[in-house]
Amino acid sequence: MTDLTIRLRQAMQPWRTAPAWRIAFSGGLDSSVLLHLLAAWARREELPALSAIHIHHGLQPAADAWPEHCAKLCARLDIPLDIVRVQVAPGASLEQAARRARYAAFAERLGPGEILLGAQHRDDQAETLLFRLLRGAGVRGLAAMPASRPLGRGTLLRPLLGCSRAELHAYAQSHGLAWVEDPSNADERFSRNFLRRQVMPLLAERWPQVTASLARSAGYLGEAQQLLEELAEMDLLAARGVCALPWLPLPSLDLSGVAALSDARQCNLLRHWLAPLSRMPDSGHWAGWYDLRDAAVDATPIWKLADGELRRAEGRLWWLSGDWLKPPQPLGLLNAALTDSVELPGNGRVNLSGELPQGHWHLRYRVGGESLQVPGRGRRDLKRLLNEMRVPPFVRSRLPLLFDGDELMAVANLTQAPGIEASGVRLHWSPPIGDRGLSW
Predict the structure, then answer these.
(1) Is residue 438 part of a domain?
(2) What count of Cα atoms within 13 Å lies in the side-chain half-sphere of residue 375?
(3) Do 98 and 220 have their domain in common?
(4) How many CB atoms are closer than 10 A to CB 325?
(5) What is the pLDDT of residues 34-93, one digit of tens each?
(6) Where is the Lysidine-tRNA(Ile) synthetase C-terminal domain (predicted)?
């Protein structure tokens, strides 16, 4: 049993009970070695169901031959292969867009508890650390590639991170493996290729252990990032507080709980809390947070981020995304449409329970100047009522209102007039939930 095989077994041992192992198989050297190692292991022992996924980006003519190459090798090793063609969205970075498309396809195909196996190795880890260091990344970025992380309904695992590219190349040659070469890997206009082909060999001439040293540093930084995440979880527990509107399903934090922390812990907490929801700016672009935090009490500041925005209202921080970033379409539902659950365009759903008495019933949103007969309190201005109930301003224009003719009779989820209170009618609104995070 080779040293490479032993290290792979050690890395995979905690995942032996997974329902399936799926190999991210590009057809290149690294993934070909991983495929071959796992196929040999599966012939000797019972393993989780083994299969491969090849993502075809269609970005260069040479890639059209790769699916056939992958299919032949998988057939020879008796491993099922799923070939997936993806569309790469245009953008400033072709590499990043291709990576997003690739991992979105992987995530979509992973079943509950399944493992996607990536073939990234120690040299990749070292290059990633150096690349991110040159871009000014923080601890999270410098931790480089984690050995495992959640992906879709399963887990992405990189069992070869402790192995060098030279070891994989030697294994491939000794077993007569053939692999595809991506022509774009020779294009030094791409920063990672320049680092791999020009910078790393130069560093290795002076420091022969440079890849091992950089990979080791990435491991230390990974431990530091884990400690920061544990601290953020502790701060998050204290900062969640209690939202006065339990029917509002938006991520939110108690502002005073966040502001009581040091600036460094505030940033650490917000990075941790917002990481699943949005791409975060680098440290030089956090002025928006301090402006939002320090604004006057009666101000309504907004911190716009890549995938949504953070607002401050009623003593809390609120994350808005998706439908919440656009005004809802005009609403004019008449009596005949007010049955059971009704979808509101761009604004969730509304449910009317009970039977309305005879009248000219309809739903609409606020236009200003509305008032409501409140049980035991007489007629009250709706604006004042919403202030008393601490409804955030960004919610008020979305609240479905039930009218009988020109008379406001109910405000969804909050209050209603005595005229329908006795009838048992209830107007419940399920607001939009926004985008529920990044796909990978």
Answers:
(1) no
(2) 10
(3) yes
(4) 14
(5) 999 999 999 999 999 999 999 998 777 878 889 999 999 999 999 999 999 988 877 657
(6) 361-429
pLDDT at 59: 74
Say whether 424 counts as a known binding-site residue: no
Confirm or deny that 29 is annotated as ligand binding: yes
Distance CA 240, CA 363 (A): 34
Question: CA–CA separation, 169 vs 268, rounded Å?
Answer: 40
The C-alpha atoms of residue 96 and residue 191 are separated, in whole angstroms, by 12
**Residue 219, annotated as binding a ligand:** no
Q: What's the domain count of the chain?
A: 3
Distance from C-alpha of 309 to C-alpha of 220, rounded to nearest angstrom: 33
**61 is a domain residue:** yes
CB atoms within 10 A of CB 404: 19
Give residue 65's domain range.
Answer: 3-224
Do 285 and 380 have their domain in common? no
411 strand-pairing partners = 401, 415
Nearest to 121 by CA among 192, 29, 25, 3: 29
Name the DSSP letter for residue 199: I
User: Which residue did the predictor score with more confidence, 355 or 6?
Assistant: 6
- Same domain for 126 and 7: yes
Last residue of a domain, one of 175, 196, 224: 224
Both tokens of 302, joined, read 């907004």
DSSP 104-138: HHHHHHPPTT-EEEP---HHHHHHHHHHHHHTT--
- 300 and 371 together in one domain: no
The alpha carbon dihedral of 162, 164, 165, 166 has a sign of: negative
> What is the predicted pLDDT for the residue at 222?
93
CA gap 9, 231 in Å, rounded: 33
Contacts of 344 (CB under 8 A, 6+ apart): 328, 331, 350, 400, 429
Model confidence pLDDT, tens digit, residues 103-132:
999 999 999 999 999 999 999 999 999 999
Look at residue 438 and tell me whether its pLDDT is greater than 50.
no
Same domain, 185 and 60: yes
Q: What pLDDT sits at residue 421?
A: 74
Question: Phi then psi for 51, rounded to 5 degrees?
Answer: -155, 170
- 430 labeled part of a ligand binding site: no
28 is in an annotated binding site: yes
Phi, psi (rounded to 5 degrees) for 419: -60, -30
Strand 49-56 to strand 81-85: parallel, antiparallel, or no bridges (unpaired)? parallel
Q: Are 88 and 94 in contact (CB under 8 A)?
A: yes
Euclidean distance between CA atoms 65 and 184, whole angstroms: 15
Is residue 231 a known part of a binding site? no
CA dist 351 and 333 (Å) reads: 12
